[in-house]
Amino acid sequence: MSEFDNIKLFNEAVYHSSDLFIQLVSHANFDSGSVAIKDDIIQIKEWTENVVDNNCKTISLEDIIKRSGGYVDYMKVDCKNSEYHLLMNKDLSMIKYMGIELHWQMGKDNFDKLIQHISKYFNCKSNISLEYPVGYNIELFFESKQL
Question: pTM of the entire structure?
Answer without folding.
Answer: 0.90
